[in-house]
Amino acid sequence: MSCNHEDLTEIMKQVGSYQGGKQRHVCAGCAYHLGIKHREQATPFNPGAVDDLKGSQGGPQRHKNAYEAYKLGFEGR
After folding, report:
1. Which residues are within 8 A (CB) of 12 and not within 5 positions of it... i.e. 6 or more apart?
2. Sequence-separated (6 or more) residues with CB below 8 Å from residue 24
3. Which of 45, 53, 63, 76 is buried deepest, with most CB atoms within 10 A?
4. What distances in angstroms separate CA 44 from CA 2, 27, 47, 65, one per listed residue?
5. Phi and psi, residue 17, nearest 5°
6. Helix-helix angle 28-40:66-75, to 10 degrees
7. Are the C-beta atoms of 70 and 26 separated by less than 8 Å?
8. Is the pTM of this model over 0.85?
9. What is residue 57's predicted lDDT score, i.e. its pLDDT?
């Protein structure tokens, strides 16, 4: 399965690589968008929510830290 968030190429450059743990293959682009959604809906900060997102191995979010991407989206960066 592959997401393609080419629109996030520059943002994903701010996100560190990550190859371990449960969220290894979680789509960091989707995690970033989830962080934005949670911020806009005043949902409490919950990086663990990314664990339920689909996996992805494509595009600029490949092997990126989904928790870090979520935080960037939540913080509005």
Report:
1. 5, 28, 29, 32, 60, 61, 64, 69
2. 18, 63
3. 53
4. 28, 21, 10, 20
5. -75, 155
6. 30
7. no
8. yes
9. 65
What are the CA-CA distances from residue 29 to residues 24, 41 (Å)?
13, 18
Burial class, 26, CB count within 10 angstroms (exposed 0-12 / middle 13-18 / buried 19+): buried
Which stretches of 4-47 are DSSP H helices?
9-12, 28-40
CA distance 76 to 32: 10
Q: What is the mean pLDDT of the chain?
A: 86
Closest CA to 73 of 44, 31, 41, 12: 31
